[in-house]
Write a structure and sequence with these properties.
heterodimer; A: 604 residues; alpha/beta; Nucleotidyltransferase, domain 5; 8-stranded mixed sheet; 5-stranded mixed sheet; 33% helix; globular; B: 374 residues; mainly beta; OB fold (Dihydrolipoamide Acetyltransferase, E2P); 3 domains; 11-stranded mixed sheet; 31 strands
Chain lengths: 604, 374
């Protein structure tokens, strides 16, 4: 990441950033104030990549026009372009944009071994913000003709081919390249250009890959993304994917050539930009972060554990277009377990399908809202399971074990996602950002992700992480300041002991230095309590029962600072995994009690 | 604000519609600009490159990949027939020779010197694109296809399954508020586009499939029965390729829902005429709705509220979420400022008068425009 980019006038005072989504183009204006960089205003307008406009910049200008009107100064020139760099009071110093319009970046990845080079390639593509349509591998059990049929059928925007550590197999890599060549794949967005293929595999196989693909695709070669078994080197492949995204893919989308000529830095795929901001915050604070963006069609999960960044896209888990798929994936019982009332199964199925075909409708009745939030819990839970499976240590790494580890079955490839060591959980997307009460967002995230020990909770206020992500690549200080002050809404902290106490004893006692004095609380099994605590850090001492862990090890007390926020502190004694009573009547009673304790919903 | 953009489903007796009929790859266009076509006219044809079959010759011959070419009995580019000998190893002192035979009738496209893999390309696969609707060719896109335009009745549904079909419109029930029953399906409905009522159960749909009904147009369908019919739970509303033996067009939604009066009347007045029906639905960017299209003499195109998308005081709307799901109502107020719902969400709302005179306050997102008077 580069440091602050200077402008003609030196200081960056005004920054405009847009995110061109599939349906809406969002614009934010950031200005330098005496307190630092702050969000000034935001505007939005429908995205215009389809007929009758066929030009993404129309939506950009419409969204920026709203910004211009709200801020009361000129940003758009008479030539209908954004004035950048600034001319006196008119215009902005930096203009940046992200985009997921036109379906985002859709990629096919290939590698020799599914759990090694192919998985590393998948990580590189996902990290670059792509939707991975399929992963081909020499050992994926499909016959070559089936793989060729699949490549032809998919029509991706780009292919990432990896395979072989440097000095390793060349014949398998050559075979994969030959399959791609035989399929003669055509790009999704028109047949007027050759499909970009990035080769990031064994350097000894470059000639063979070149022979197979040079005349049929726009082949680009970068350093091997898995040069040795023990090492991943994803950056060259990710950077090349970003370059080609703009150069080949988005250049085919209407109006992008014009947009590209306006921006101060390359246009980034939206999820790639969100990944940037999550990584920036983890690096700057030296913490582990889990971020989730739950949309209408997809749910993205981002994480940084032990300094390693991972992103996954659960392509068909979402709250409107994909809502029915959440039900299909998790089953009715898993949704109903979060609902504090009886509901006819057939009626619920019809209700969810009606949301699928009319995705923009919103719940009017409280019960409807509760059902939607129950579905959200399951979408988030399933997305995290997929993320945990993917965000792992490198597989295939040779480990030296001593005698004490000889019987330990956890080989290479263990998940990096450790909910006990998680410091910050950030939620984004309509169902979380726009939940009528912030405590609803907090509980949806806790129920779905089951953080253990002590975890800070936050939500993205108006979903501006994409714009801040692209800003982080050219002006990190501004991105961080706005992220912390205007984007991130701190909800507070959840304290969730893991383990069981003997004889019905409390799981832990918690002493918190509240503004009006220190108070002690006891977390009993099955409890869920809320303690108001305004934003700011206070000291907290937690003493777990024997065998119960709150982050310092079983039975070990800890003292640390915790964050307050709009929700405060949640003491969660429901166990991990959360123990919901099996009898329907007891479950409803327990949920009703938690609703009351947390003041979760308006009273009837 | 006095109006707002609200989408809706088009239901009109005087519509003009154009359907794009394109090949997936370049090919040959078989009709001319201005030519009249019928639904089954083939308008464009292409030859898809044949399927690929692979065979690793180096492994089968037991030699290094670089040595394969010297053992070939045919050349790259030759056409080979299934089981034809294509390579033979030398063996040891002429003994133990390995012969490799062609896995399929195909062209031997290439043999890799790195992997020893041979790629055989089978015969090209012809792909035909039909006109789907009756009408005139209004645009020719060389090598790819045409646009066909016509005028007549157009009914969009909310959801459908199944491919494009064509058949005469017939009536299953003349009451849009009652379910279509198995007993309503008669032998003479074979090949027809059959008009149903508020819902068709899985028994009714199965009877229709047995009878050979081409398409069913119904008000609603039960989600659990749809799952049973398809054999899986439909997760995302992207359909059109189902092969259950019938095309379904659902006009209102999931559950038992009376078919809109105007929809039922329009289709009833077209009995005996040939309709083109598609179940293809895509509720994503580039939205597609299932449809029933019936050619007719239309002098003037009807401009409907749905075309403008303008919601104003006095507009007729259908309520598309509980409470009052399925009811038609008239807009009485469009306040500009957001209001708080029972859920505590602050959203932009409207007030409507229901058919019984009751007033209701709803989110604007929960109504759609309909071209119907109350």
């Amino acid at each position: 990441m580069s440091e602050t980019t200077g402008t003609a006038t030196g200081e960056v005072r005004s920054i405009l950033a847009t995110d061109c989504g599939s349906t809406t183009t969002k614009a934010i204006l950031i200005e330098l104030t005496p307190e630092g960089y702050r969000l000034a205003v935001r505007g939005e307008a429908p995205t215009t990549v389809e007929a009758p406009f066929d030009d993404v910049t129309v939506g950009v200008i419409n969204a920026v026009t709203e910004v211009q009107e709200l801020v009361g100064r000129t940003i758009i020139g008479e030539d209908e372009r954004i004035i950048c760099p600034r001319q006196g009071d008119a215009g902005v110093d930096l203009y940046l944009s992200t985009s997921s319009a036109g379906g985002g970046l859709q990629m096919l990845v290939a590698g020799v071994v599914r759990t090694m080079t192919a998985e590393s390639a998948e990580r590189a593509a996902l990290g670059a913000g792509a939707i991975v349509m399929d992963v081909l591998a020499s050992n994926d059990k499909r016959q070559p003709h089936e793989q060729i049929t699949r490549i032809r059928h998919l029509r991706p925007d780009m292919i990432l081919l990896s395979g072989g550590i440097d000095g390793g197999t060349t014949s398998h890599v050559a075979e994969l390249a030959e399959l791609i060549g035989a399929a003669d794949p055509k790009p999704r967005l028109g047949s007027s250009y050759q499909l970009p293929v990035v080769f990031a595999g064994n350097k000894d196989a470059r000639e063979a890959v070149d022979d197979a693909l040079q005349n049929k695709t726009a082949l680009e070669v970068v350093d091997n993304l898995r040069p040795t078994l023990d090492e991943e080197n994803l950056d060259p492949a990710r950077d090349k994917i970003h370059d080609l995204f703009m150069e080949h893919v988005m250049a085919q989308a209407p109006g992008y050539d014009k947009l590209k000529s306006w921006t101060s830095a390359p246009v980034m795929p939206t999820p790639g930009a969100v990944g940037e901001i999550i990584q920036t915050i983890a690096r700057q604070r030296g913490i582990s972060v889990l971020g989730v963006d739950i949309g209408g069609a997809t749910t993205d999960v981002f994480s940084v554990f032990k300094g390693t960044f991972n992103r996954t896209v659960s392509a068909n888990l979402g709250m409107s277009y994909s809502v029915s798929n959440v039900l299909a994936s998790t089953g009715l019982d898993n949704v109903l377990r979060w609902v504090p009332f009886d509901i006819d199964e057939s009626e619920l199925r019809n209700r969810i399908k009606n949301k699928m075909v009319r995705p923009t409708t919103i719940p009017t009745l409280l019960r409807d809202l509760q059902v939607e939030q129950a579905i959200a819990r399951e979408a988030l839970r399933l997305a995290l399971i997929q993320h945990k499976d993917f965000a792992t240590e490198l597989k295939g790494v040779r480990k030296v074990r001593d005698i004490s580890e000889a019987f330990d079955q956890s080989g290479s490839g263990a998940t990096l996602v450790d909910m006990m060591s998680l410091d910050l959980l950030v939620g984004s997307g309509g169902v979380l950002s726009h939940a009528p009460r912030r405590v609803q967002a907090a509980l949806m995230m806790i129920d779905a992700f089951e953080p253990k020990g002590v975890t800070t909770l936050a939500v993205d206020s108006i979903f501006m992480m994409p714009q801040l992500g692209v800003l982080a690549t050219v002006h990190a200080p501004a991105a961080t300041e706005v992220f912390e002050r205007d984007c991130l809404i701190l909800l507070g902290t959840v304290i969730a002991p893991a383990g069981k106490a003997k004889g019905g004893a409390p799981l832990a006692t918690v002493q918190i230095d509240l503004p009006d004095g220190t108070q002690e609380f006891s977390i009993g099994a099955g409890d869920l309590q809320r303690i108001p605590l305004p934003e700011g850090q206070v000291r907290c001492r937690i003493t777990p029962a024997k065998g119960v862990d709150v982050g310092a090890g079983p039975g070990t007390a800890c003292e640390r600072k915790i964050e307050g926020g709009e929700v405060g502190v949640l003491l969660d004694g429901r166990g991990r995994p959360i123990n919901l009573p099996t009898s329907a009547a007891e479950r409803v009673e327990a949920i009703e009690q938690w609703i009351q304790n947390l003041d979760l919903y308006p009273h009837d | 604000m006095g109006h707002a953009y609200t989408p809706g489903l088009k239901v009109s007796a005087a519509a003009e519609y154009t359907r794009s009929r394109m090949l997936p790859i370049p090919g040959e266009v078989l009709v001319r600009d201005g030519e009249a076509v019928q639904p089954d006219t083939v308008v464009a044809r292409a030859l898809l490159p044949g399927n690929v079959v692979t065979s690793n010759l180096a492994k089968q011959l037991g030699v290094a990949a670089a040595d394969v070419h010297a053992l070939l009995l045919v050349k790259e580019g030759d056409e080979v027939t299934a089981d034809q000998a294509i390579a033979r190893s030398k063996g040891i002192f002429g003994i133990g020779k390995q012969t490799v035979r062609a896995p399929s009738t195909a062209i031997l496209e290439s043999i890799s010197k790195v992997s020893g893999q041979a790629i055989f390309r089978q015969a090209p696969i012809p792909v035909d694109v039909k006109a789907y609707i009756a009408g005139k060719v209004t645009e020719v896109v060389p090598e790819f296809g045409v646009e066909v335009t016509d005028r007549g009745t157009m009914v969009q549904g909310i959801f459908g399954i199944g491919p494009e079909v064509c058949g005469p419109v017939m009536i299953g029930t003349d009451d849009p508020t009652r379910p279509l029953l198995p007993a309503d399906i008669k032998a003479e409905h074979a090949g027809a586009v059959l008009l149903g009522g508020s819902i068709a159960s899985i028994e009714t749909i199965r009877k229709a499939i047995e009878t050979g009904v081409a398409a069913l147009v119904i008000g609603g369908i039960d989600a659990a029965e749809l799952k049973e019919l398809l054999g899986f739970d439909l997760g995302v509303a992207i359909t059109g390729n189902e092969t259950v033996g019938i095309t379904l067009v659902v006009t209102e939604g999931f559950g038992e829902l009376a078919m809109a009066r105007k929809t039922h009347q329009l289709l009833t007045s077209s009995v005996g005429e040939t309709a083109s029906v598609s179940g293809a639905t895509q509720i994503r960017a580039g939205v597609m709705r299932p449809e029933v299209l019936i050619p007719g003499d239309v002098a003037e195109i009807e401009q409907t509220a749905v075309d403008t998308g303008q919601l104003t005081v006095g507009s007729t709307v259908r309520i598309i979420r509980d409470p009052h799901f399925g009811s038609l109502a008239k807009v009485t107020e469009l306040p500009p400022e957001p209001r708080m719902l029972d859920t505590e969400s602050a959203v932009r709302i409207l007030t409507v008068a229901l058919p019984d005179g009751q007033q209701a306050t709803l989110p604007r997102a929960n109504v759609e425009l309909v071209d119907e008077s109350l």
